[in-house]
Amino acid sequence: MNDSVYKWCCLAWLLQIIHDAIEQVKGIYVVIADHGNAEDMVKRDKARKAALDKEGKLQILASHTLKPVPMEVHGLANVAATVMNLHGYVVPSEYEPTLIEVVE
Known about the structure:
By secondary structure, the protein is mainly alpha-helical.
């Protein structure tokens, strides 16, 4: 199992623990992401080989890749209003609109 798969498995397990605890208290949680580089964690040369630094160590890729993220939100600007609505708050008019319909 490669490092990225292992990390995703750990994340899924931890999110399940959080989910179960939130369910017990009838709460709400939101998980969002706007970018990532899990599909490739090291820099690569033109031949797609892992790039090494002067000491022969892998160069870690800290920038964002161009791969799509497996979750879509209209924009991060909408997330604040959506989270506020989920928690029962009225969103200020100057915020971007919520992504959910609020029914009273």
